[in-house]
Design goal:
Shape: elongated
Number of strands: 4
Strand order of the largest sheet: 2-3-1-4
Mean pLDDT: 82
Low-confidence stretches: none
Order of helices and strands: HHEHEHHEHEHHHHH
Largest sheet: 4 strands, antiparallel
Length: about 300
């Protein structure tokens, strides 16, 4: 207990003796922590954006104008029996026209054009709703191979799917770039910690020599530096986390305007211990490894 108290005191004193270096290390830890959280929230944002688009992926089947409605209703019954299909709604062209007229009331040009037309320009169509957007490709594949394909003029799913695939591709590329950026930042932070710990060791060289002379063991000399690292890592991380939480609280109403299901505050609250464990554990790992290499390379004890 006596040795432990001395080690803890030495690490605490080291933190206050090296004020400038401690501030640099705290600042580095704050930046690394904020970038790690930026990575977490970026991955969460892209996943929520893709989920939002998938949930609203429209699957409408538009038929040719000369098709008998009995054939459309037959296809409706077939699709209703597909596993995972919640509803298949039949929209006659008369209803489709009424809906379009209501939606276009604010546009006088469209309203005037509809009045001038002598016939209904819209067609009958089906709206398919499922529990999972992954079922849509199965339905599309069935329609493409069935005899009903000759009755169909247009399926909205294919165009929308192209857009979603492009967004998924862009989001994956962005995630990859963010991952590379985080790795580069972690490497640079490790180099900064390595050099600052080296400077701390150099400034404490006389104290280290005294400890050697009085017979102090290797770990008795090393551990105070690890205590020192633990102190500035914890302080820097707490400051970064507090800043992040305060920022999210002030901007809480803004994020759902981008993507309705993107709620970073709820995401952090639900995964608080896991995310903090990963972020703080990674920071400690980088700092401890950097310090250990510095001590092994430049202090022969």
């Amino acid at each position: 207990m006596s040795k432990l108290k001395k080690i803890l005191k030495y690490g605490y004193d080291l933190f206050w003796q090296e004020k400038i270096i401690s501030l640099i290390n705290i600042g580095t830890t704050i930046l690394v922590a904020l970038f790690l959280w930026f990575g977490f929230l970026s991955f969460y944002f892209f996943n929520q954006m893709i989920a939002y688009l998938q949930e609203r992926l429209d699957f409408s089947i538009y038929f040719r104008s000369n098709i008998n409605r009995e054939e459309i209703l037959k296809l409706q019954k077939i699709l209703q029996n597909f596993p995972g299909v919640k509803e298949v709604e039949f929209v006659p062209q008369e209803v489709a026209l009424k809906k379009f007229q209501q939606e276009a009331r604010a546009n006088p040009v469209i309203t005037r054009a509809l009045k001038e037309l002598q016939t209904n320009p819209l067609v009958d169509y089906l709206i398919v709703r499922t529990d999972n957007s992954e079922i849509y490709p199965q339905i599309a594949d069935y329609i493409e191979k069935s005899t009903y394909r000759a009755y169909i003029d247009y399926i909205s799913y294919f165009e929308n799917q192209k857009v979603i695939k492009k967004i998924i591709s862009i989001s994956n590329q962005t995630k990859f770039l963010i991952s590379i950026l985080l790795i580069v930042i972690l490497i640079f932070s490790a180099l900064i910690i390595f050099n600052t710990i080296l400077a701390s060791i150099y400034s404490q060289r006389e104290e280290i020599e005294v400890l050697r002379i009085i017979g102090a063991g290797n770990w008795f000399i090393r551990v105070p530096f690890f205590i020192y690292i633990l102190i500035f890592s914890f302080l820097g991380y707490i400051i970064a986390l507090g800043t992040l939480i305060l920022f999210l609280m002030k901007t809480e109403d803004f994020w759902p305007t981008i993507v309705s299901n993107f709620q970073p505050s709820i995401f952090i609250a639900d995964n608080f211990f896991v995310l903090n464990g990963i972020a703080f554990g990674l920071i400690l790992l980088i700092n401890f490894v950097s310090a250990f290499i510095a001590m092994e390379k430049y202090i022969k004890i």
